[in-house]
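Cross-posting from the modeling subforum.

Setting up a comparison between two proteins and wanted a second pair of eyes on the formatting. Protein 1 (sequence, then structure tokens):
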Amino acid sequence: MVDVGESLRAKGMRMTPQRERILDAVRRLGHATPDAIVEAVGADGGAPLAPSTVYRSLEVLEELGVVSHTHLDHRSPTWHLADHADHLHLVCMGCGATIESDVEHASGFAGNLLAAHGFVADIKHMAIHGWCEQCSKQRQQ
């Protein structure tokens, strides 16, 4: 994993206590919206952080390659550690469940895009909307 403090210093920044708390919250939560991160940081015993501080810190941490985000729906992005970005997100439009799937399951799709358009897809940021097995069965009845 990237040495965050060193990467920040190389850009003339430093690892602030706020950034450390935000990174810790992302580690604990796994996948989290900025609002969930604000809530988690507010519950960690330290002073509450403004949502704008959380957003700015997430952007800096993403620029460093420490965190990454995915858009699971039309609302806020979901953030996670960048080294956890090795899967697809299957989002059920029926029950709202999110299922993680290996990126290899989309390799054919990515290959088709490359062959047809010369487009190199970053499938590890992919969220596919549809229906989980249970909701699909209910829809068919």
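Protein 2 (same layout):
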Amino acid sequence: MTREVLTVELRPVESADLDRFFEHQQDPEANLMAAFTAKNPADRGVFDHHWGLILRDPDITVRTIEHEGKVVGSVLVYPNEGFPEISFWTDKAYWGQGITTSAVDAFLREITQRPIRARVVTDNIGSQKVLERRGFNVVGEAEGFANARAAVVKEYIMELA
């Protein structure tokens, strides 16, 4: 069985996209899967400050993910511990449809620096599968306090060589 490749568009973030990103961040299950989120995801001031820092940082490349004309998420790369690190967030309504996979594929064609890393909480199987299918392998583990879970969690450090 072959899976249909979905068409997504990656484009620079526009200010109106932030409203959609903020809405996506309100889903409790999505926050649990991401784990490392704001202490209070409903605090728009903290959200706007965080995104302002991202959008002004010349070392961060960030794109809006669009599917069928709708803003469905974001993908970005930022420097972390000497490596570029990819991170993504997709609206829960679009999970399991191949949209994140298509977006990551498109982003990895744009961002060609290797190795590139990603971090994913060990129980976030969906994101692990997206990364593994792109060729990422686990190269380490880390622990950190996750606001969304109010606990220390383990995460895999994954790398695409």
